[in-house]
Give the backbone structure.
Amino acid sequence: MTATPAWPPKSTPRLFVDRELAVGAEVPLDYPEVRYFFSVLRLKEGDPVRLFDNRTGEYIARLGAIASGRSSARIESLLQPRELTPDLWLCASPIQRDNFALVAEKACELGVRKFVPVEMRRSQVRQINATRLVKRMIEAAEQCERTALPEVEPLVRLEKLLSEWPSDRMLFFCDERGGDPAPAAMAAHPGPAAILIGPEGGFDDSENAAIRALPQAVPVSLGPRILRAETAAISAVTLWMGTVGDWA
């Protein structure tokens, strides 16, 4: 007996749409979306597409006709609700833009809930392009079957971050000067958490002392090797996910 093919097929194009979706809705498509579906992918009226909105979930929709460079998609059914993400924030100093965009991309892939750029005394980059960071996250989510994007916070000074730190959230401080092995420290402190990654030049003495003075801060080590900032961020998130996150 021939098996019933999976629906929708894995090859169905998948795209993020920045508006709330619902079954039965007729969703207008912007020019980039029309161009992507009809010019790049060569789809036709009536072809299925998968759309997700970072609000309610992922849906199957059918493309409408093109008229004057415009089109729409009619939502047929909900494929899956927006996923629940582990309660982890990634707080990191901005670094060279391509590398910082890489950190944002991997934060999305790994399941981080909130991405917080933090300006520190030795930060060599003191501005961020939030639009670019979100774009990289969207691209990662589209390719990796994610239905949730991390929330991207505005750039904040380290002093302000610490002064407003929530009392119920642990802060795993990746300290190049040493600390408890990260997996053991994370396992000992389950629950809402954040990871703090410094700039290329590391934390200065006063920052190190201020972080250590925070009751919720736990200095951790990422092993015997020196890691670049982007590698440290990705490694620390991976360790948390595998220890107390939704990989455990």
Observations:
- The chain is about 30% helix and 25% strand.
- The CA atoms of residues 118 and 161 lie 8 Å apart.
- The radius of gyration is 21 Å.
